[in-house]
What we know:
Structural class: alpha/beta
Strand order of the largest sheet: 3-4-8-5-7-6-10-11
Order of helices and strands: EEHEEHEHHEEHEHEEEHEHEEHEH
Radius of gyration: 20 Å
Number of helices: 10
Helix content: 25-40%
Distance between the termini: 33 Å
Largest sheet: 8 strands, mixed
Low-confidence stretches: 1-19
Strand content: 15-25%
Shape: globular
Number of strands: 15
Amino acid sequence: MRERRACGTLTAVSDDRSSAAPILPTHTPPLFKEAVRRATALLRAGQVVALPTETVYGLAANALDEQAVARIYECKGRPARNPIIVHVDSLDMAKSCAKEWPATAERLAAAFWPGPLTLVVFRSAKIPAIVAAGGATVGLRWPSHPFMQATIRACGFPLAAPSANPSNQISPTNAEHVRRLLGGRVPLIIDGGQAQVGIESTVIDLTAESPRVLRPGMIHEASILAALQLPPYSIDGAAMGDGGGEPLKSPGCLVKHYSPSARLVVLAWENDEDLRSQLDARKLPANECHVVSHTRTPDLAGLSGVSVMPHDAEAFARALYAEWHRCDETGVKIIVMETLPAGAEWNGLADRLRRAAGP
């Protein structure tokens, strides 16, 4: 029997693999306080800790400690040319990490911080080159998650924190995802609940003559233009590519990224017959295909399974990675995603699907 399920709210399915990393809850004030204390002690000692943010879970270390940041790269198997976003708890801390603070950064920070927007500026001398993959710039973000804010405040230094997963795999959106992906490689995982944004932050480069979106997210171009008081089409859009081997200005720019273990295919279909025809044309066995739909939900015999996603961009984002994690956990071989609707609010999600599918 095929499984048909709604994906508006998802929790990870636990497995029985052991993990060396304890998972600390934060759902009461005493637990929250104790988790901050233990995370801060490890971070001050130069260790890495998996922490919740509102976008996805991050693998954090002291951004000012070159050896601590090197542990992030080692733990994730992250390419040395892929920079790491630095997380701050105030505008003053952000400015201390920047060589200069342009007016565009001031406007965008006022409009969207704390929140899921990363600003790329020229880095100050206090930010080690390893954070920037040897480049001259750094991505800065002030996250809105209360635990991340409290931890940065308790540490007194900014945190370098890419997603808490092996390089190029799906970002985790809850503590159980982190345990399954990195549990044996980190000393501590903090459970701050399900990520409320669900995909990585929008990244905008403010170091060129015109602002440029390096990675789209849930804060989209129209909102950025309004905050900058710029006319339409004044921002250069993100492009697929890997920079030709040069250090990248932002994570999330590799052609193949955010990928489940299952093969991912993006299709648009009119009806069951059309979907069957497209699967046959691509030599995709129906019994190996799990279809993830949002508008045209198939009732096609022989499919491995069908999931129904919310027809709302924000709710879709909250559910997307959790659905891919679930597919990987259950051994799905092929994920067939229904093409997303048009509209600026879907651009970040469309980017994740393109990069997950790869060239």
